[in-house]
């Protein structure tokens, strides 16, 4: 469960306190998710500095006390939110990618589903990008874990003989950057772009490169 | 001249005032550049909120009055700085790219020179990325103009028959994203990475794609 994972994985709190703040009931997990979903809207709309804990609990429809059951500060819920969004994205894309018949197709479907996710969660760019200034470790971890998943897919595809055998980390960072920029341009900025067409064109670049095919 | 271009192109100041603040002498242009170079260090080290005008003039070795000869506020020099850095990057990469024998090679050399630029100007990521929060129009313009230059190179390369004839804006955004992420990973985060090797591998992906070449 993403919400639990991130609460457990939280840095800057000692092990005991961390254990104390992990929700133990389904109701508690629901409240935690409500707070994180509300935090996504609050930080997404207002930015870190203007966002407030009372704004988050108001949006979540919870008492202020509920916030402090799970988080000590605005910094802490922001850090948890970056991980939560990163995991939501992973959970959205992973099953779709895993159902693909081969690695080239997995990257096409992965990009299309990412572009769809951005359309539905436009706040993801602002939140992840603001982490660069609020909590650099979270920012870096988001990209490192996302790119590592791409690298593992590439490697598995190479082992299965679907793509070149020399793929590695550099290719994974290139693909990650490609996806993030296409998401910004065609998911975030352009609500009318044909997401499937963008993914198909980018995937053809990825599969075949720019060289003339004569 | 980049510094003049950006002073002239500044938004939020009426035409007359703008004209008044453009340096008319070589000495004035030198002072303006000193202020912008100092602003890059100040904003790069401290971030927008903690940076101060007095910090900028101290680093530039100029009087506070000099600052107000060219800028009205911290917001205004930040906006000018984003454009200045964007133009410095363009001026660094463009002649190198134009000397390339063909478009595929142009993209390889362009990426290698970008990675080198990042190593020398590590503050560029923090400054451009902070523009997303301080001045979104500048942030977006930086990427749009950078990607538009890539698109024009691709189109010219296609006309010369060096690459596929169906290249366009989507390919340009994909390449822009690839370069920015490779710059972050191997230019900014990893001071020891072999920049030429990274550029060669990414360029081979761009030229030939991921499909097995049997």
Automatic annotation (TrEMBL), chains A, B:
Name of protein: Transcriptional regulator, TetR family
Per its record, what are the GO molecular function terms?
DNA binding
Annotated signal peptide? none
Residue limits of the HTH tetR-type domain?
A: 29-89
Give start-end positions of Low complexity composition bias: 1-11
Report the SUPFAM superfamilies cross-referenced here. Homeodomain-like, Tetracyclin repressor-like, C-terminal domain
Keywords, A to Z?
A: DNA-binding
Q: Which residues does UniProt assign to DNA binding?
A: 52-71
Region Disordered: list its residue ranges. 1-29
The scientific name of the source species is: Sphingopyxis indica
Per UniProt, the ranges with Basic and acidic residues bias are: 12-29
């Amino acid at each position: 469960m993403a919400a639990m994972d991130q609460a457990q994985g939280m840095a800057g709190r000692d092990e005991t306190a961390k254990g104390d703040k992990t929700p133990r009931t389904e109701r508690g997990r629901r409240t935690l998710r409500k707070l994180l979903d509300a935090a996504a809207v609050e930080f997404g709309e207002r930015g870190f500095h203007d966002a407030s804990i009372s704004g988050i609990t108001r949006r979540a429809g919870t008492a202020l006390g509920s916030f402090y059951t799970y988080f000590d500060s605005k910094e802490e819920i922001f850090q948890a939110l970056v991980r939560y969004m990163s995991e939501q994205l992973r959970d959205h894309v992973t099953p779709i990618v895993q159902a693909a018949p081969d690695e080239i197709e997995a990257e096409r479907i992965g990009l299309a589903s990412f572009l769809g996710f951005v359309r539905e969660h436009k706040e993801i760019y602002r939140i992840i990008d603001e982490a660069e200034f609020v909590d650099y470790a979270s920012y870096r971890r988001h990209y490192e874990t996302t790119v590592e998943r791409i690298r593992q897919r590439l490697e598995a595809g190479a082992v299965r003989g679907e793509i070149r055998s020399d793929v590695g980390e550099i290719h994974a960072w290139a693909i990650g950057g490609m996806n993030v920029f296409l998401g910004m341009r065609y998911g975030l900025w352009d609500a009318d772009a044909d997401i499937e067409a963008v993914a198909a064109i980018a995937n053809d670049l990825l599969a075949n490169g720019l060289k003339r095919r004569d």
